[in-house]
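As agreed, record passed on underneath.
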Amino acid sequence: MNNIKVLHQNCGTFSGQKSNILALVAGTHTQKTLKDFGFTFSHKQYKLAREKAVIGQFDLNPGEKKIPQSKARIPEDVVEKINSILIEQSIPSSKTIVLAQKNGQKIIKEVRMLQDTKKGIYQKLMERFPQTKISLSKFYTLCPRNFQRASKRTDVCNVCVAGNQYKAELDSMARSGNINLFRMATLQRLMAEFRDHLKLNDLQRKAFRKQQLDLDTDSCMIVADFKENFRIGGGPVEASSSFYRKRQISDLCFCLIYKDNGQMTRKYFNYLSENLTHDSFYVINCLKDLLSHEEFENFQKIHLWSDSGAHFKNSDYIYAIFKELQSIYMGKMFSLNFFLENHGKSDVDGHFGVLSRWFRDAEKQQDILSIEDLVTCFKQKSSQNGSTRGLDANDEAYKFYIYSKDMPRVDRHQIKIDGGIKLNLSYYFVNEKLFASPICSEDLSLYNPVAYKIVKAKDTRKDKYAPDQIQRMNAGDALMGPSSIRIQMKRVEMLGGWRGGGEGERFLSNGGHCER
């Protein structure tokens, strides 16, 4: 027994041999007895030794170690096949990527844009080389990082697009060592301007988020934006000509952000209209109606946010907020803030995505021929959404109104700021004084007073409207237009006519093929 113990201790850490040796005594002695005698082993090793003792496996041959397929080395020819099909299913791009090698060196490789999904390319690999044994997950692992799926970004800031291009050019120049000093100086100047642009956007975004976090029971935020127009006139079945007869509908949305019992809450107020003129007159009228709702009664501080588009950032809008609304709601304080130019994405854009999905789903189930149909459709979807989330019927997160397309235009009142309106992104008004800052801040001491004058002018802007009526068919009991009827009758004549039999009848009876 002592000799077996010494042999067990000296055979190293390879459990295959140790369990074989332990099997010599495990069949006749308990685990406790062997440990009392001085053996050292785990419960798992003892259990394995008992099993070997039953079958009489006492040899010292460790046997062939089985390597899981997931850890098996992939043959070089399989890797070559993968790289080959990836190159075949991709196209080169102007982008590059830095890859680390096994020896620690870093290399720059061209990024290739895949023309299909990785799963689709894997299936093509299996069809072409059916003898190749490789799982989908292993294929994903073996795909080099410089093979990427192409993506499309829309509505991107022009400054950011140009800035990233200049950055890539500057990096390429530095890597290659082929340096043009004059060009590099120009690129460095452009990059400094680009970094300033990014910094300004970052500061304004941080101010927006901080203002949200600092909201209390007396304050709220309103984010406004126009959606891309809806095109109504479709339904479950659409003729090819329906597309050209569709009518556009505007949607101006205000997102109310406030805290309810400490929780951030959002409500969306949508003003849909057949008036397609997205100007300050539309915005001001809808904003006046919005603030008359009971949801705004208890808010003493209202922070208005929007993008820097001309329909928001203009003299009419500033006058309406700081003169008209301030006089109507004497106890309230308003601030006006704008996101940096071309960086106006906000909470409202996510809501617009929801509306677009609702609209597509509704068109599959019903005809939407009027603005009333559209509003009814959205209200139904909103109600279903609220029921799904267990919301009270009176606590609607989405509200929809129709803004009249025939609102009479009156004289324009404007606050004309010395030096123009473009410089500053944040304004507030106290004691007939207008204060402005290039960045929104809770510290009002950072705002500077700006000189202004009030101007009155005639509103000469013209409203744009959608067509008055959507007609699925031509007026009267007509299947098609007169010209189309004439052509069709001519064709019937040429075929001999089939209303009274003849050649046309033989044409139809022959499965639609003319007899020669």
The longest helix spans residues 181-213. The first strand starts at residue 90 and ends at 100.
